[in-house]
């Protein structure tokens, strides 16, 4: 049930920036720690700003992203749920999230996938981002031997408890709650099923505008608190 504080999110952003600059300016990159892949860094922020599941993001195709209309459509088959009960979701991209998609587009636009596998053979493994993040918090692992061809360090530790990319979904939802977004709208932004079976049969309004407002409010808050040091942030319980 990990929820990252704003201070931890700021620290993570600083780590990403510092690691990238250190590696870029290194005289000998063979002896310099490689930063977390740029695509994975972007995935972290997209999950935070959209409340999407990492599996949904790893399976996403560029054909379902419209940067001009600022939308990302998640087909029902890519969402989590019981067979026959999965629901599509259209996410409206705040300025914060749109910028991440633009950065990602520069890296992977030549593929049909937002996160292509090696040799562009389908999308990357859904667990890839989680493994990369976990490998950089090895102090929380009980490993007795070093894993082959895996980075193992503590470069992404931001607190006394390990964090995962799924925690970003929970953290974003909690921030929405702090921003006074109604609970039902938060649940809808997470694509949770709400209401009784009868409600879902008769009530078909999709709350698109309310969800859009919630995502934009979250994005504006993240933009101001992550990048502006003079903003006083609230604590997340």
Oligomer: single chain
- Lateral strand order in the biggest sheet: 1-2-3
Which outline best applies?
globular
Assign the structural class, choosing from mainly alpha, mainly beta, alpha/beta, alpha+beta, or little secondary structure.
mainly alpha
Number of helices: 9
Question: What kind of sheet is the major sheet?
Answer: 3 strands, antiparallel
The ordered string of helix (H) and strand (E) elements is HHHEEEHHHHHH
Rg to the nearest angstrom? 18 Å
Assign a percent range to the helix content. 40-55%
- Mean pLDDT across the residues is 88
The N- and C-terminal alpha carbons lie at a distance of 11 Å
Give start-end ranges of low-pLDDT stretches.
230-237
Strand content range = under 5%
Question: Could you explain how this protein is built, in words?
Answer:
The chain is mainly alpha-helical and 237 residues long. 45% of the residues lie in helices and 4% in strands. Strands 1-2-3 form a 3-stranded antiparallel β-sheet. Strand 1 and strand 2 form a beta hairpin. It is globular, with a radius of gyration of 18 Å. The C terminus is likely disordered.
């Amino acid at each position: 049930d990990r929820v990252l504080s704003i201070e931890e999110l700021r620290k993570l952003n600083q780590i990403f920036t510092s690691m990238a600059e250190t590696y870029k300016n290194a005289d000998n990159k063979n002896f310099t720690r490689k930063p977390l892949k740029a695509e994975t860094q972007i995935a972290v922020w997209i999950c935070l700003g959209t409340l999407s599941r990492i599996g949904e993001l790893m399976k996403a195709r560029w054909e379902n992203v419209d940067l001009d209309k600022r939308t990302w459509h998640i087909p029902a088959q890519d969402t989590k749920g019981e067979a026959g009960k999965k629901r599509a979701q259209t996410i409206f991209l705040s300025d914060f999230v749109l910028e991440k998609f633009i950065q990602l587009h520069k890296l992977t636009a030549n593929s049909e996938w937002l996160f292509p596998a090696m040799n562009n053979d389908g999308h990357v493994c859904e667990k890839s981002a989680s493994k990369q993040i976990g490998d950089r918090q090895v102090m929380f692992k009980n490993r007795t031997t070093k894993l082959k061809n895996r980075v193992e360090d503590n470069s992404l530790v931001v607190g006394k408890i390990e964090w995962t990319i799924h925690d970003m979904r929970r953290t974003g939802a909690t921030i929405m709650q702090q921003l006074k977004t109604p609970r039902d709208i938060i649940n809808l932004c997470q694509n949770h099923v709400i209401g009784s079976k009868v409600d879902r049969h008769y009530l078909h309004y999709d709350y698109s505008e309310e969800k859009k407002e919630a995502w934009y409010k979250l994005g504006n808050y993240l933009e101001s608190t992550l990048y502006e040091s003079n903003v006083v942030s609230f604590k997340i319980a």
